[in-house]
User: Which sequence fits this backbone?
């Protein structure tokens, strides 16, 4: 019927008209509904962590394609990649000295790929790097994360330096995407490959957050006790939730753009 709208368009239009507080409430409800859905459909919740790693790998593959085939790094934040390399290096060190497992292998591959991306942006594709738009001061996140790690870290039997390093990588991972979001906000227009990559990060972090939340529920809180005592267990969970919500707004506009048939994502003011 001419002039009729699809249900998804009607819902999207209704959401757009709501005030910020209502939108925030709807996001929380949607997140809780997604967690309930995952709890019943995924029997082994460890698979959520594997799925998060797989989605992250897909995002990195999109990034590799952009850099090798498109021969441009326009729209990518070098500072976000630097922060990613930093927290991955810290996590890899902790993994080697504290709990060597399959995640050590995955982190090694991810760090190697991230260093390659940094190399491409700094040297091979430097002419297309938007340095003036990538203006987020990374010490605004590195210094607070370091101070927080000194104050709140695991209370396990490991060496104190290793425990602080572990806490630092957890906190830094939660905010490492902020320079990328700032760059996209500065440009207002996000080309497809960059949008796909950031959306993959958002999905990966939601799955990782879901893994932690559902594990806590399944163990009736015993998992938090296993992580140590004091504020550290709560900070781990909070970091997972924070990094999910940081990307939630962008993911909303990404889905809206895809359903609207737009190849280029246009961000309104105030998304970051």
Assistant:
């Amino acid at each position: 019927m001419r002039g009729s709208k699809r249900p998804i368009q009607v819902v999207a239009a209704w959401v757009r008209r709501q005030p910020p507080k209502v939108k925030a409430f709807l996001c929380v409800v949607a997140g809780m509904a997604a967690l309930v859905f995952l709890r019943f459909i995924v029997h082994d919740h460890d698979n959520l962590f594997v799925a998060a790693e797989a989605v992250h790998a897909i995002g990195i593959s999109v990034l590799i394609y952009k850099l090798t085939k498109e021969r441009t790094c326009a729209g990518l934040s070098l500072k976000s990649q630097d922060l990613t390399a930093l927290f991955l290096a810290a996590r890899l060190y902790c993994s080697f000295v504290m709990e060597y497992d399959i995640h050590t292998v995955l982190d090694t591959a991810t760090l190697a790929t991230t260093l390659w991306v940094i190399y491409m942006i700094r040297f091979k594709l430097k002419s297309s790097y938007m340095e003036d738009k990538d203006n987020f001061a990374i010490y605004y996140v590195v210094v607070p994360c370091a101070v927080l790690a000194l104050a709140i870290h695991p209370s396990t039997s490991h060496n104190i330096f290793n425990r602080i390093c572990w806490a630092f990588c957890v906190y830094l991972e939660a905010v490492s995407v902020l320079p990328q979001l700032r760059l996209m906000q500065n440009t207002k227009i996000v080309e497809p490959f960059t949008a796909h990559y950031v959306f993959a990060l958002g999905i990966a972090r939601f799955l990782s957050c879901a893994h932690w939340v559902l594990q806590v529920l399944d163990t009736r809180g015993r998992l938090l006790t296993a992580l140590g005592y004091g504020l550290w267990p709560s900070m781990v969970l909070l970091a997972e939730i924070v990094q999910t919500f940081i990307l939630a707004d962008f993911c909303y506009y990404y889905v809206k753009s895809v359903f609207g048939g737009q190849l280029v994502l246009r961000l309104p003011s105030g998304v970051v």
Notes: The mean pLDDT is 82.
